[in-house]
Amino acid sequence: MAGLEPEGAADFADLSQDTVLSRSLRHAIDSGLPVVVVTTPKLAPLVQRWVASADVVVRPDFDAQGRPTPVGMGYSIAAGVSASGDADGWLIMPADMPLLRPSSILAVAAAIEQYPAAFAQYKGRQGHPVGFSPELYSELLDLQGDEGARRILARYPSQAVELDDPGILVDVDTVEDLDRLRSQKV
To answer: Is residue 9 predicted with pLDDT exceeding 70?
Structure first.
């Protein structure tokens, strides 16, 4: 499973007749792996343009008592893993990585067949996706907050997958990031 989490307006910004989100999703889909997207109620209809409704996990804004639900990458990862508990493993990638190649996604997926965890690396710098084998299911379900899965990577043997793909490091969080990407005519 490749998981993506759309978070902000930059994900929907134009990128040469495309959006950051749609390009990121297309690359995940082009990998041929199952894709599950964790998102908010507001963004779910947009995501469902590219991914079947059954593969969209909507994290509610409020719980049954009307309290705001906790936010953060850890909760989103746990929700995606919970929705696909029978997967052969999980790859985590933010939805704002439009240059990440499908071949890089597949390389990290192959690594978790041999290691509990793996991550993409370009010239010694860690990027996305980050992958986890089924043996880490319970650990992934326990994630909370903004920490994401860093503590799991630190706790278990993980394999760096050196790739010739600078896109594993390129995320679009700000207008400046988007402008920089547009200037490269991608």
So the answer is: no
| Higher-confidence position of 9 and 171 | 171
State the SS3 of the chain.
CEEECCCCHHHHCECCCCEHHHHHHHHHHHCCCCEEEEECCCCHHHHCCCCCHHHEEECCCECCCCCECCCCHHHHHHHHHHHCCCCCCEEECCCCCCCCCHHHHHHHHHHCCCCCEEEEEECCEEEEEEEECHHHHHHHHCCCCCCCCHHHHHHCCEEEEECCCHHHHCCCCCHHHHHHHHHCCC
Q: For the chain, give every domain's residue range.
A: 2-181
pTM (two decimals)? 0.85
Instruction: Supply the CATH classification number for the domain 2-181.
Output: 3.90.550.10
Highest mean pLDDT among 17-31, 53-67, 116-130: 116-130
Q: What is the pLDDT of residues 51-79, one digit of tens each?
A: 888 899 999 888 889 999 888 899 999 99
**Beta strands across the sheet bearing 35-39:** 56-58, 35-39, 2-4, 90-92, 125-132, 117-122, 158-162
